[in-house]
Automatic annotation (TrEMBL):
Organism listed in the record: Streptomyces mangrovisoli
GO molecular function: phosphotransferase activity, for other substituted phosphate groups
Name of the protein described by the UniProt record: CDP-alcohol phosphatidyltransferase
InterPro entries for this protein: CDP-OH_P_trans (IPR000462), CDP-OH_PTrfase_TM_dom (IPR043130), CDP_ALCOHOL_P_TRANSF_CS (IPR048254)
GO CC entries: membrane
Length: 261
């Protein structure tokens, strides 16, 4: 109780404000470099404000003593995802350089393997950090699927929306909230989605090859989700007991492990 009464949110909240500022700076750099249109600007700014608001609310609720080095890496990655989001939105009005979009996405995907290692190395792993990391990853996959869908068709959106459909379904059918066994296959499939979408979006391969790559990614994702749903249906049809204390990380393993490395 003493810690809660003396908690000072200002240092932690200042870091989220700095992140929003860096996001706006990145948008300004992109705008000056490629002449980004209104769609890119508006989408990028909405992303910056939404990220700041949601993260600030989560930090206020969990009251961490510090933001932590791993969360700083994830926040930097979120800034890159905001840039990618703005470029994808701008692509509906103009043709931003593919190399710029690919570069930002590649760095964001590479950093996905950094924040988890930093958290473990510094002993700062938290449920909030894992959730933050997962949400950034999932949103990047969604944005990439939107971009690639303009080249290959709307069916590609299944890759980006499948995780969100699963989360929504878990609210309707509580048995989907059961705990899943740890699976490296699940993590591998999740990681492959970003790589395959980036490869297709880079337009380095023939159209037929891009189609095959994305179809393989979608097929592996359907297999992964299908396997987990079947396991939950057979073994996890009962929701977590209400008598147990609710923890910050009491959410499906499928949700936490989807993109967290």
């Amino acid at each position: 109780m003493v810690l809660n009464n003396t908690y000072d949110a200002r240092p932690v909240q200042q870091e989220t404000a700095v992140g929003a500022g860096v996001q706006i700076l990145l948008l300004a750099l992109l705008g000056s470099a490629i002449g980004m249109g209104p769609a890119g600007w508006v989408t990028g700014l909405v992303f910056a404000v939404a990220t700041w608001a949601v993260l600030s609310r989560a930090l206020h609720r969990t009251r961490p003593r510090s933001f932590g080095p791993a969360n700083r890496v994830t926040l930097g990655r979120a800034t890159l995802v905001g840039g990618v989001t703005a470029l994808v939105a701008d692509s509906f009005e103009s043709s931003p350089p593919v190399s710029l979009l690919v570069g930002l996405t590649a760095v964001a995907l590479i950093l996905d393997g950094v924040d988890g290692k930093v958290a473990r190395a510094t002993g700062t792993s938290t449920a909030l950090g894992a959730r933050f990391d997962m949400e950034v990853d999932a949103f990047l996959i969604l944005v990439l699927s939107v971009y690639v869908s303009t080249q290959l068709g709307p069916w590609v959106l299944l890759i980006g929306t499948m995780r969100y459909v699963f989360v929504a379904a878990a609210r309707v059918w509580p048995w989907l909230n059961g705990e899943l066994p740890h699976s490296m296959a699940r993590k591998t499939v999740a990681a492959l989605q970003g790589i395959c979408l980036l490869l297709a979006g880079a337009q380095l391969l023939p159209q037929a090859a891009n189609l095959a790559v994305v179809l393989a990614a979608l097929g592996s994702l359907v297999w992964s989700f299908g396997r987990d749903v079947l396991w939950l249906w057979r073994h996890g049809s009962a929701p977590v007991a209400e008598a147990e204390p609710v923890r910050e990380d009491s959410r499906p393993v499928r949700e936490l492990e989807l993109t967290h490395s």
